Amino acid sequence: MGGVCSRKRDQLEIEDGLHRGVSGRFCKSGSSKWLATTFSRPVVEIQRGKGKCPSLMELCIYKIREDINNYGSFSMLPRDLSQQIFNELVNSQCLTDVSLEAFRDCALQDLYLGDYPGVNNNWMDVISSQGSSLLVLDLSSSDVTDSGLIYLKDCAHLQALNLNYCDQISNCGLQHISGLSNLTSLSFRRNSVITAQGMSTFSCLVNLLKLDLEKCPGIHGGLVHIKGLTKLESLNIKWCNCITDVDMKALSGLTNLKSLQISCTKVTDFGITYLKGLQKLSILNLEGCPVTASCLDSLSVLASLLYLNLSRCNFSDDGCEKFFKLGNLKVLNLGFNDISDSSLIHMKGLTNLESLNLDSCRIGDDGLVHLSGLQRLKCLELSDTEVGSNGLRHLSDFKNLRSLEICGGGLTDAGVKNVKDLSSLSLLNLSQNCNLTNKALEMISGLTGLVSLNVSNSRITSAGLRHLKPLKNLRSLNLESCKVTSNDIKKLQSSHLHHLVNFRPE
Q1: How confident is residue 39, by pLDDT bands cut at 50, 70 and 90?
Q2: Does 426 fall in a domain?
Q3: How far apart, in whole angstroms, are the C-alpha atoms of residue 317 and residue 140?
Q4: DSSP 8-state code for residue 399
Q5: Within a domain: residue 195?
Q6: Residue 298 CA to chain centroid, in angstroms?
Q7: Quick one: pLDDT at residue 397?
Q8: Could you give the CA distance from residue 228 to residue 203 in angstroms, rounded to a whole number?
Q9: How far is Cα of residue 80 from the mean position of the Cα atoms in its chain?
Q10: For residues 138 and 108, is the Cβ–Cβ distance under 8 A?
């Protein structure tokens, strides 16, 4: 929960930086979290001074890190030990082009060098010396060029390759990975040089399960080269605004696809018709695409569809009666669409829904009555809608609700009374409701399961903080633009909220 509210309206992307394999320089946050292809870097932590006694292995690795310049080669060590030493040097930012030489011919399996400073073509010789043992290689945000990829020909068993934000790699470089037929995961995010012609290389990678081409604006017409990759389960082409309905035809035969991210492309209702045969598809992200409710006819035949993002599309009330066909959905994002209460009537049949986002829609108090039957609902986003205090009474029987966000509305203390019995809540965001007072904190003092609370931009004062004492599980508290100081919160943290680690003002 950041700033005044928990989301940024001018950004469409999800949190792509959840894992270290994706460059933090380009991280964004958005209205929903749609997990994308990322690489996770293992961490070796030496718990010195934290009450935990490090193991003998950890002490040895730490000592080697301190004296790394005294070692010429680790090739005689068991692979698992040299791998742990390598990981520790990377995580502590102690690996240099000089110390890297000690890992030549160590048969390492995983090299996570994403975002690591100084990685360039000079590192590739040692990297390639791992030979057929190398399974995972992350070079994201590095200065490796086309010629550096030549070295990978000796790593025939490579399974996962991350080249995100490597803007010096072009179509020529792709030719050097065409022989890596064991690749199951390939990521090329944010590359403006790769074109449809270069994608012809991908046709040889017959074992690919995951392909990530997010923010590659030159790949229009190139998806035809992946139509033979029948094992593909995940495809990400978000923010490729060159992608049109024609490109969708190439995906119609990828019947093993389970996740498809095509947000912020030019795909329309017609393009969605090509997806009818993808019966294993469970995740579909269409955020920002110019699709309308007409696409629901095509989506309704996708029996495995569980997660659907239609935020910022061209939805209106017209055609929303077709939502009843999507009865298996667990997550539905309709944020920033021109839909009103009349559309919610058709949500009553979505009894499997666990998460519903109606952010900035024309939803009012009367519409919430149509959601009262969604007993499995755990997350509900109603920020910047017309929902006020009266509408919340319809939520009183959502006993499984864990996350509720109503930012920037006309909520008053009287409305918060309808929230006080939602005992399963762990996240509550009531920010930008300027009429809320200390009485609101008293109302929610019984929600002892709360982990995150945002009541910023309200009339709450330091005197109201006493009502938060029972919330022992609270880890995040936002009271920005209230008459509360950081010292007031620190006193509460010290005396009662011992788990509080993030608070504002700070």
Answers
A1: low
A2: yes
A3: 43
A4: T
A5: no
A6: 26
A7: 78
A8: 7
A9: 31
A10: no
CB atoms within 10 A of CB 456: 26
Which tokens hold the place of 143? Answer: 């200065």
Per 3-state DSSP, the chain is made up of helix, strand and coil in percentages (nearest 5) of 30, 10, 60
pLDDT digits (tens, 9 = 90+) for 14-23: 333 323 333 3
303, exposed or middle or buried, with CB in 10 Å at 0-12, 13-18, 19+? exposed
Q: Hey, what are 354's tokens?
A: 């666990």
* Cα–Cα nearest to 197, from 224, 167, 177: 224
Phi, psi of 355 (to 5 degrees): -145, 130
pLDDT tens digit sequence for 169-222: 999 999 999 999 999 999 999 999 999 999 999 999 999 999 999 999 999 999
* pLDDT of 34 higher than 60: no
Q: Which residues contact 483 (CB under 8 A, 6 or more apart)?
A: 459, 460, 461, 462
**pLDDT band of 41, cuts 50, 70, 90:** low
Number of domains making up the chain? 1
We report the CATH number of the domain holding residue 480 as 3.80.10.10
Host domain of residue 413: 402-506
- 497 lies in a domain? yes
Half-sphere exposure of 354 (CA within 13 A, CB side): 6
What does the pLDDT read at residue 32? 38
Evaluate whether 427 touches 403 at the Cβ level (below 8 Å): yes
Full 3-state SS string of 184-213: CEEECCCCCCCCCCHHHHHHHCCCCCEEEC
